[in-house]
Design brief:
It contains eleven helices and two strands. By secondary structure, it is mainly alpha-helical. The chain starts with 12 loop residues before the first helix and ends in a 12-residue tail after the last helix.
């Protein structure tokens, strides 16, 4: 069984970057995506995200299952926005262009569709960056790099363990899912969307309990080995910042500043094509 979101060593310049530079890029990239609703900038970010995702040589089998879950969540999110705030777009852009009427006070407007389109592409600016960061970053090297720039090794080690646990949790999820299917609970595409959501949600509690058992085992093992006794520690894997790392960090900062400057040039973070 192939594990999703697991680190795989490959010969790409993204893999050769330090974990710190990739983390800085990821954080600034996500911050820019959260702050801006400028469609022009978001489209540029989507294109760039897909390019770096392609360059990282990430295989679909590594991210396919998670991507499908994200798409399901995104679909539910978009539907929920329309159900609870069908006029959100009209309030934001200040105009109301009705395309057709559904029922009651539910009208499909250009403004609402444009707003929800921006919500969708905001997800697609971040998703490839998340995948790229997780599958190209060695957890041990990442923890060592964070400690090298002054971050407590406890924080770095905690993040390292979290990254290592992602494929393990995925494997546990698959085992529980197969056990449920063996009992006659349908979770494939043959079942309805509502049934799949309901049946999948029943996996959450067994997954939580199994994860807590893993945490207890690891914490006991670390305590028995005297982890945390000293203020400093040495690292087996460590990667220094190089030219490409500094260029990546510089690009991240410059892009965020430029994007936010363009976004707030008219004192609003929403690009309005209706005026």
């Amino acid at each position: 069984m192939s594990k999703i979101l697991a680190y795989e060593e490959k010969d790409t310049w993204i893999h050769q970057l330090s974990g710190v530079s990739k983390l800085i890029f990821f954080l600034l990239w996500c911050l820019t995506s959260m702050l801006t609703y400028d469609t022009r900038i978001l489209i540029i970010m989507v294109i760039f995200s897909l390019i770096i995702f392609r360059i990282s040589k990430t295989q679909w089998k590594q991210v396919g299952a998670v991507f499908k879950m994200i798409m399901l969540f995104l679909t539910l999110n978009v539907v929920a926005i329309f159900i609870f705030s069908p006029d959100q777009g009209t309030h934001i852009y200040g105009t109301r262009t009705v395309l057709f009427h559904i029922a009651g006070h539910y009208d499909v407007t250009k403004e609402q569709l444009f707003y929800e389109f921006n919500v969708i592409i905001k997800y697609f600016t971040v998703i490839p960056a998340v995948f790229m960061f997780l599958v190209t970053t060695n957890p041990s090297e990442f923890a060592a790099s964070m400690n090298k720039i002054g971050i407590s090794y406890n924080v770095g080690y905690a993040i390292s363990i979290a990254l290592r646990y992602i494929p393990d949790v995925q494997g546990e999820f698959t085992k529980i899912k197969h056990a449920q299917e063996a009992r006659g609970i349908e979770m494939s595409g043959k079942a309805s969307l509502f049934s799949r959501i309901k049946n999948t949600s029943s996996i959450i509690f067994p997954l939580i309990f199994s994860s807590m058992d893993r945490i207890d085992i690891v914490s006991n093992a670390m305590e028995l080995r005297g982890y945390g006794k000293h203020k400093k520690r040495t690292w087996y894997m460590e990667k220094k910042l190089r030219r490409n790392d500094y260029l990546t960090i510089a690009f991240s900062v410059i892009f965020m500043v430029a994007a936010l400057t363009i976004t707030f040039a008219d004192r609003s973070r929403f690009y309005n094509p209706f005026v």
